[in-house]
Input
Amino acid sequence: MALTDVPGLGPKSAESLKAGGITNPAELMAASLADIEIMGISRSIGKKLRESVTSLFPDIYGDFIEEQSLEDIEGIGPTTAKALREKGMNIHLLETTPVRELEEKYGLTSNSAIKYQSALTDARGGFFTDALTFRDKVASTPAFTFGAESLDQLFSITEYQTQGIRAGESYEFFGSFRSGKSQLCHQLCVTVQLPRELGGLGRKAIYVDTEGTFSPSRITQMATRLKAELGWDKPVEKILQDIQYARSKNSDMQMGIASKILELLGEAPQEYGILIVDSVTAHFRAEYAGRGTLAERQQTLNHHLSILHRVADTYGLAVVVTNQVQANPAQFFGDPTTAVGGNIMGHWATHRCYLRKSKGEKRVIRIYDSPVLGELEGVFEITEEGVLTSTE
Ligand code: ADP
Ligand code: MG
Output
């Protein structure tokens, strides 16, 4: 069927769409409204055209759910929507951004910001849900494998019947150098891409590298092992392509990258499954070295961490950060190391995990603080093939 057979779609619009690579109704349904807009068809017209296609083919598109966009909120017209979009705002972010920031950064009055946010809250049924409904929602949150059985088991939640890393939750891996933090992060960038039936989410990864230790060849080794073991047919090049990499060279750049991620995900809210920041504290620690700068460092770090939470809350990505440890001279017994970042870091992650090197290739990971996981330990190994299970 030709584009011009869609009621309301004239030859001129059809030409514009064709120039953008949309040649038939199916492609029109699969595109994003943002893409269609770039081709010169406004979002509202784009939506009308898709309604026409839906009514032409109710059997195929009866369940089609149109993307929500800023214009769908009462009181937001095309001009406001355009201005907000130019500043990086989208409908997902509008709900999770604090009113003060909507005023200062996006130029809304506090009255309109509050009005729009309550419209969004009403649309999803208000602030409250009962605990049973909430439990079902939490239980249905997908999780994905570490690619190592011992770790999946350590992170299994019997009540929800999930294993591994949960979407929408935050994780901190802290430990001294060579304890395996970056290796875990690398492997998660691969396993998140596994299809659901092989234990993944079938989604892409974002890796923010602050120490310059990211290694595509390590990804290749890990991917090769998982492909062989699980019979996974995604080409290694495609696996590498589906990891968005950013190198942050200082704390300001790191904060800039985080804000950009928050914006960019609005265009692809379902595409990504994990955001990794390895390591989240290194720049802050190095740049704010003197004693007098501690308060300022903590304040800035706090802001950065809140943006990372917003990524998890807004788009349902798992957010994994690594953190270094420092010697704690006040502790005489046991392991004399504490995580960097003090209380601010200490309260950030839903699941805090401590990694340490053991004999040879073995590493021990301890759940240090988690609302649902016990204080248990697991063992894994790091070999040429990646992060592997270990039973000892
Ligand atoms: P950190 O906790 O400092 O981020 P890493 O996660 O980078 O530490 O772990 C580094 C360790 O991983 C190395 O000391 C080495 O034992 C192991 N490792 C890294 N690459 C390989 C490889 N290709 N083959 C075997 N072991 C490796
Ligand atoms: Mg590292």
